[in-house]
Amino acid sequence: MKEITRIALPPHAPEGEFDHTAVDPVSDRLYAAHPSNDAVEVVDLGKRRHIESLQGLRGVAGVWVDAGARLLFTSNRGEDTASIFDLERDSPRELFRVPTGVRPNGMAFDAKRGVLMVAGVGNPKAAHAPPTLTFVDARTGKVLGQSEAPGRTRWALYHLPTDTFYVNISDPPVVAAVTAGELPKVARTFPMPARGPHGLEQDPDGRVLYCACDEGSLLTLELTTGSARVIAPLAGPPDVLWLGRRRSRLYCAVGEPGSVDVFDLNPVRPAPRVPTAYGAHTLTVDERRNEVHVLLPESHEDLVLGD
């Protein structure tokens, strides 16, 4: 991969970092959580520039786009809510702001039913603030149910072939499964052979989940057998894991020392590692251009890498 350009983003107020980010291929825009600014930053991918900030989202940590439904979701960790935005207009319009569990972070969306899952990290120092899984009807903003997660949550996804939500749990190190038709209870947990499951992705063939763990390793989880194994080392503790479907490549952001670890799939094998910057722990993929966007916290930039 090579550097294409850098897009200036608003500086932190007063200091901080960026969190999860996602691309909407329909409007050709990137949405990036900016927790210190209580905002989601919006980038025009074609014009290569920042165009607006969606403000008033206290401590926003998670961002997810469903292009087909024309919806943007945010998890607002500073106020224990999630927001649902309409993407049909030129500027996103907030439709609903709904209560979640404590410190929401990871999200996943079942487009078939219109159900959003929001994973709350919880607060071990506060009474009655366990990690949670909250399920919301995105069409009405109604909370459908909530269950206690088996441990601190990390990232999550909805898996269509098994009609199941999967959530990384850092401690104990497991992947929790919630059957979409049987909300909100946790149906099963899959033990993982490495500490701190963090980033989570799914293979295009629908049989395997990829899990990046704080221990510094990449794992696979075979959904048909429940077998998990370590398949590759990482440069350090990872965060976001994202699949580039057109290139059949897996990209993992490692904030310390600052790199993108790249893996070709089928079979899984490492590609050249790309240095970024210290603290750059979040990324996403622009499939249209085969580009990876890495958010650099110290320089307030979106680093665009061509692959």
Write the topology of this structure.
Layout: E1 2-8, E2 21-24, E3 29-34, E4 39-44, E5 49-55, E6 60-66, E7 71-76, E8 81-86, E9 93-99, E10 104-110, E11 115-120, E12 132-137, E13 142-148, E14 153-159, E15 164-169, E16 174-179, E17 188-191, E18 197-202, E19 208-213, E20 217-222, E21 227-233, E22 238-244, E23 249-254, E24 259-264, E25 269-270, E26 274-275, E27 283-286, E28 291-296, E29 301-306
Antiparallel strand pairs: 1-29, 2-3, 3-4, 4-5, 6-7, 7-8, 8-9, 10-11, 11-12, 12-13, 14-15, 15-16, 16-17, 18-19, 19-20, 20-21, 22-23, 23-24, 24-25, 24-26, 27-28, 28-29
Overview of the structural elements:
The protein is mainly β and 307 residues long. It has one domain: Methylamine Dehydrogenase, Chain H. It is 0% helix and 55% strand. The chain has strands at residues 2-8, 21-24, 29-34, 39-44, 49-55, 60-66, 71-76, 81-86, 93-99, 104-110, 115-120, 132-137, 142-148, 153-159, 164-169, 174-179, 188-191, 197-202, 208-213, 217-222, 227-233, 238-244, 249-254, 259-264, 269-270, 274-275, 283-286, 291-296, 301-306. Strands 22, 23, 24, 25 and 26 form a five-stranded antiparallel beta sheet that branches. Strands 1-29-28-27 form a four-stranded antiparallel beta sheet, with no helix packed on it. Strands 2-3-4-5 form a four-stranded antiparallel beta sheet, with no helix packed on it. The model has no long low-confidence stretch (mean pLDDT 97).
Descriptive terms for the model:
307 residues, mainly beta, Methylamine Dehydrogenase, Chain H, five-stranded antiparallel beta sheet, four-stranded antiparallel beta sheet, 29 strands
